[in-house]
Amino acid sequence: MTTRPKALPGKRTNDPEGLRKRVLDVAEASFQARGYHASSIGDLMAAADVTGGALHHHFPTKKALALAVVEERVAAAVEETWIAPVQAAGSAREGIRKVFDTVAAELEQQGFVRGCPLNNLAHELSLADPDFRTALAGIFSAWRAAIADKIRADQQAGREQGIDPQRFAALAVATYSGAMSMAKTEQDSAVLRDCLMALEPGAVPARAKRRRRVLLRSGTL
Amino acid sequence: MTTRPKALPGKRTNDPEGLRKRVLDVAEASFQARGYHASSIGDLMAAADVTGGALHHHFPTKKALALAVVEERVAAAVEETWIAPVQAAGSAREGIRKVFDTVAAELEQQGFVRGCPLNNLAHELSLADPDFRTALAGIFSAWRAAIADKIRADQQAGREQGIDPQRFAALAVATYSGAMSMAKTEQDSAVLRDCLMALEPGAVPARAKRRRRVLLRSGTL
DNA sequence: TTATAAACAGACTGGTTGTCCTGTTTTGTC
DNA sequence: GACAAAACAGGACAACCAGTCTGTTTATAA
């Protein structure tokens, strides 16, 4: 999160890209934490230290701003946390396991579950506006396609013969999305690990009582 | 959805339960379709044909109204569409299959995906207020518990020996939640069926190209 | 009937919202 | 330097929001 280097009086320096980035940073964070409708552009202006005129110059409407967040930030977040790791992994299953583990570890470390950016906005905006819906649907589609492609690559290497790539990809994305939904609501990342283990082939019942780590609110809202 | 029997002038009949029900009907539908923040109580008043004084008498704040919707309606919806069918089914897996099929069929028939009421509100309200979060988390918990109990019953009957009840329940709920999330965003129920089939043990790749039924907007918003 | 509370009506308010508009400053180009 | 366009400042505004308030009507119970 970039912050402005203290405005000394008298002089001004135009920095359109920097300002745009600052607004997107703030909007992304606020949409994630509070949601679209609960985030007022007044709050965003204050948080980004930006005037109304400047904001309006870069994003004429709130919808335009949200659309930019979806297309530039949410898509990138899915790419970074899911698509790239899966592609880089030795196999699809390995990639999925890695992502679940990484995310669960992150949540446990920061002690607060903000939820999946894509799902958060998808629920609030999919029915609100067709432009939102289309943009969000495209991200879901790319997400599943990346996993399905990886499964197909596994299959060409002789593995994962028994499964359907598209269906498995849908299952993986759905499981993660739903698990994050519960983790957010319960403020407990344990369900993520539960889902991952249940997803593994030949899952064995847990011997000992599993630990419950109820997280405490801390991170900035 | 109950509607008022045309207000003839001069006379008035107090019907507190009926009025309360009408408000909850309208609020439930609007929260589902537009979300909490996008639903103004003014709109709700108009839709329920209720005055401000009457609404305030039954629900002093918007939060109180939403809490009532969650506790009385959303919980009942999960009970009706998930918990009861699973308990009534011959086995947990059979119940899950049945629910997925039923819901998918309903969506295809009505041609529009409004999403899961619980998840819709959970995403928007979990971080907004601890009371909301607690109420919503309780519903998720009961949902998973019902499935886990059914699995345990199966295991006592000698079936499903290889799996962990709690983890499997988490997987089932997460898969459904995530699938509905995608179905809503894509306005296509196909992903629900994909997830169900991928969830089945020993899932076999689909032989033919699966059909895609992109739904058209129709239902009342 | 009379008292009492519950149920409802409807106007009102203080604050917020997103957007617009006019003007000023900076920046790039010739 | 002259000029035009982009970048920014900041006030104004109408619409809307949730909630409050006072008053009236209906039901209940004695």
Task: Describe the structure concisely for a colleague.
The structure is a homodimer of 221-residue chains. Chain A is mostly helical and 221 residues long. Chain A is built from 9 helices and no strands.
Describe this structure in words.
The structure is a homodimer of 221-residue chains. Residues 217-221 of chain A have low confidence and may be disordered. The two termini of chain A are 14 Å apart. In chain A, 67% of the residues lie in helices and 0% in strands. With 221 residues, chain A is an all-alpha fold. The first copy, chain A, contains nine helices and no strands. Chain A is elongated, with a radius of gyration of 20 Å. In chain A, helix 1 packs across helix 2 (41-48), helix 4 (62-88) packs parallel to helix 7 and helix 5 runs antiparallel to helix 9 (190-199). At the A-B interface, helix 6, helix 7, helix 8 and helix 9 of A face helix 6, helix 7, helix 8 and helix 9 of B. Chain A binds a DNA duplex (30 and 30 nucleotides) through helix 3.
Oligomeric state of this protein: homodimer
Largest interface, and how many residues on either side?
Answer: A-B, 55 and 55 residues
Return Rg of chain A in Å.
Answer: 20 Å
DSSP strand count of chain A: 0
User: What gross morphology of chain A would you assign?
Assistant: elongated
User: Termini distance of chain A?
Assistant: 14 Å
Low-confidence stretches of chain A: 217-221
Major sheet attributes of chain A: none
Which bin fits the share of residues in helices of chain A?
55-70%
- Could you state the order of secondary-structure elements of chain A as H and E? HHHHHHHHH
What is the overall number of helices of chain A?
A: 9
Strand content of chain A: under 5%
Structural class of chain A: mainly alpha
Mean pLDDT of chain A: 91
